[in-house]
Structures are given as structure tokens and as C-alpha cells.
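Lecture notes, unit on protein representations.

Consider one protein chain, 174 amino acids long.
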Amino acid sequence: MTGSGARTAVEWLASVAPDPDACRWDWERNPLGVALLPAGRRWDVLILPGELGYPTLDVLTRLADRPGPVLADFGDGRTGFFVPPGTAARWLGTGVRGVGRGTWIAVPYPGRVAGGMRWLVAPDGTGTLTDAALLELAMHEAAGGLAGEVRGSGEVRGVGQSGGAGEPGAGPER
């Protein structure tokens, strides 16, 4: 990220902080290099497990010219997609955590790794966010691809596949 792009992104992110100057100070001087920012003002965050988040980001980058900001946390266990405000309150989905109004999120300085967190897609400072409907489509495609990989490895039996007596998916004997 260029110097002016990082500054623009910093200003956009810090604008939601109760004290933008304190936010910038936290980024510069806090040993963890993160600032706590309130969600629900300019953006919400949908947090996916890493094993779904990374394939979802791959699909999303094929579908959109540029997705909104995306964070990865400690050990890549979770990915957070920045979506329009209000999305978290309306989101229904198993395994996806919504961070919206009344909640806070730790955010590293744009373009830096801090406290085990890093930007997979840094904010551009213009307010670009990921469209929730597009994110949902990308999640479905990614989950379908993951399910196909698991079935192909023989680890999981799908509905309607023949299993042993008494096993889920066991059909009538032939």
C-alpha cells in the first residue's frame, strides 16, 4: 500500500473512533499495533472460520473487481469481511459471527501486521465494502468446493449414499 493510500485508509478507519487522534496514537505507539474500533457506524464485519474464509475470498476476488477490506487473525483461524452497516443484525448463518452496532473489533494499521492480525485486503480509504449478497454467493460456492473435496477424499458420506446398517444415509438393502 502506498503512503498516501495508507493515510487515506487510516483516516477512513479512524473516523469511526470516539477519539480519532487516540486511535492513530494506538496504531503508532501501542506495542500490539492495533486499535479497538466500534462496528456498525461505517461498516460491520462478518467473521468466518479460516477454512471457509480463504476459499470465500478466492471466489470473491473472481466475482468483484475489488472486495472490501478483509482481516485475518492469529494463525489464520478466522477471516473478517467488512460489509455495509446493519448486515450483522440481519445475517443468518451457522458458523458466521456478525460484529455490528454495539460491538468493537481490533483493527491493525492498514498495510501492517500487528498483534497476529493482518489485512488480506487492506481498506482503500474510499469506503469500499463487500456487498453482503455477493459475499453470501461466494461463501456458497466456496463451501460447495470444500464439500466436493471432502467427498472426493472419501471422508464423508453424503445424503443418499449407501452406508452400513444403521448409519446415516443408509438406504434400503438391495
